[in-house]
Amino acid sequence: MKKDLQKKLVRYSSAAGAVVAAVGSTNAQVIYTDVDPDFVNASGTVQIGLDMDGDATFEFAISATDTLVNGTQYGILSVVPVDAALSAIGGEAPSGYNYALALDLGMMVDASVNWVAAANTMSYEVDGAFPFGENWNGVTDKYLALRFTNSGNTHYGWARLDGGGDSFTLKDHAFDATPDAGIETGDMGNVGVEDANIESMIHFVNQPNNSVKIVINGELSNGEITVVSTSGAIISTQQVNDNVAFVDMDGLAAGLYMINVKSTEGSITKKMFVK
User: Fold this and answer.
1) What is the mean pLDDT of the chain?
2) Residue 270, SS3?
3) Mean pLDDT: which of 163-177, 187-201, 226-240, 248-262 is highest?
4) Domains in the chain, ordered, with CATH?
5) Can you tell me the distance from the alpha carbon of 58 to that of 56, in angstroms, rounded to the nearest whole number?
6) 20 to 30 Å CA-CA from 261: which of 80, 121, 270, 275?
7) What confidence score (pLDDT) does residue 204 get?
8) Which residue, 196, 183, 235, 205, is CA-closest to 25?
């Protein structure tokens, strides 16, 4: 079942793969992904995959369904863990049906959330009305609470959406790479004005054999390059002493790593998957 869903999501995510271009940033261990431009499903049936940690495997699927049955129009929005043994969604079941929570900004996502390792309805629209009181009926800038496991470690995260019926807009998502650490909804790490400035200065160029060339346009004050695993372990650190630097990741275990360049001017991170 989960393999079939992964295949479907890869197919559906040809558009999602273009828009979910990860722009990562780390502050402590928060890994933030901006969906730029936002993924918008104005109406109709679509199913996209949500890859929280950039390891090319979808942890969650967001599904919108638009269907006409005996003259009645249904619009249904739901979120599903691709592998229920590894992922779960913050939810509730007030009447025996799983409803995904729609959290406000600044709420904690951690072990205290009620976790549901099954499909959660977000919104259920019937002929333009919402008769069942789900949490995502016509909302703006609300947050899904998400939990997933990577390499045996549990991580908590969020995804920000607008939603209602079979329409939704996916805007961004983040998780804390420190195992078992909670994260507040809306926490983007240190993404800010300074990071936007440094982004124009730093260019990452993939090289053969799992290495990356970093080109620096301008001068960085107290520049430092750090490679971090998704478990939070620091793999290597080097000072920026020139306008070109190389990060050799050949020989590392296969998986996702973050290459963080930080300086007085700000910080920027590239996600790198070692095969």
Assistant:
1) 83
2) strand
3) 163-177
4) 2-184 (no CATH), 193-274 (2.60.40.3080)
5) 7
6) 275
7) 87
8) 196
